[in-house]
Amino acid sequence: MNILIVDGNEKNASSRYTEMNMMTQYEIYEKVLRDLIKKDCNITILHPACAGNYIPQGVNLDDFQGIVWTGSLLNIYDLGPAIERQIELAKELFKKENKIFGSCWGLQVLAVAAGGTVRKNPKGLEAVIANNIVINSEGMKHPLYKNKPRIFDSLCWHYDEVKNLPSGTTVLSSNEMSDIQSMVFTRDKSEIWGVQYHPEFDPGWISGLMQQRKKLLLEEGIYLNSEEFDKFSSFFASIEKNDDKKNQLSISETIINRKTHTVELSNWLKNFMSVFD
């Protein structure tokens, strides 16, 4: 079994995480996939944003049963080589019989490669928690959301959103910040599932991200002041010790219950692999 992780970030962006002793976005994705898959698998990571010659010798794009695309600090409308290489890679992968899952930036680059467009969300930054995502009638029928509550919260971080959908796309969920919180489509031989939020993030990791971007979160008004910020950051850093504060902070179980917040990835794996007990 072979899984491909496409890392959306440039090298300096990933270095910001490692400098704070955090996992990078591709490492957190690898961890959650290995936790969910119940047998050995080979995971290959590509970094198309970092260099033109990014496919190692011996790696064949035909060899993967599943592909996931990570988040990124990039904005797709800026274009440039780091972005254009990813769009071209997505177009190449569409030609193969792939099952592709994209989170946030991953959703956006896949949408653009299939003919859609992305814009800066006029409603601003949606960060840390995407509140009250509602699964629509199409979503309730789709395997992406099997065993997911119809209304849920998720960890997130994004300025951008899909504006124009690729042809043949079905939107599965939305909230007040964005009409497109998840969508699915097929292109050539590939089946693509994408979410604007991050089911791969966990509370401990998001706490580290909050510390890295505290100034920005306060400037953007995500938290009213440092005291409020510290309450949420401390909670996410150690949810076991702070379970009594869950209701006080209005933290949804759909964020802190690992099985629930990763169910989209579990369902994606189940959709094409017999890997669960």
Describe the structure.
- The chain is of the alpha/beta class.
- A hairpin with a 7-residue loop joins strand 9 (170-174) and strand 10.
- It has eleven helices and eleven strands.
- The two termini are 16 Å apart.
- The strands form two sheets. Strands 2-1-3-4-11-10-9-6-7 form a nine-stranded mixed sheet, with helices on both faces.
- It is globular, with a radius of gyration of 18 Å.
Salient structural properties:
globular; alpha/beta; 11 helices; two-stranded antiparallel sheet; 277 residues; single chain; 9-stranded mixed beta sheet
Write the layout of secondary structure elements.
Elements: E1 2-6, H1 11-19, H2 25-36, E2 42-46, E3 66-69, H3 81-94, E4 99-103, H4 105-113, E5 117-120, E6 126-135, H5 137-141, E7 151-158, E8 160-164, E9 170-174, E10 182-187, E11 190-195, H6 203-212, H7 214-219, H8 226-237, H9 253-256, H10 258-261, H11 263-270
Parallel strand pairs: 1-2, 1-3, 3-4, 4-11
Antiparallel strand pairs: 5-8, 6-7, 6-9, 9-10, 10-11
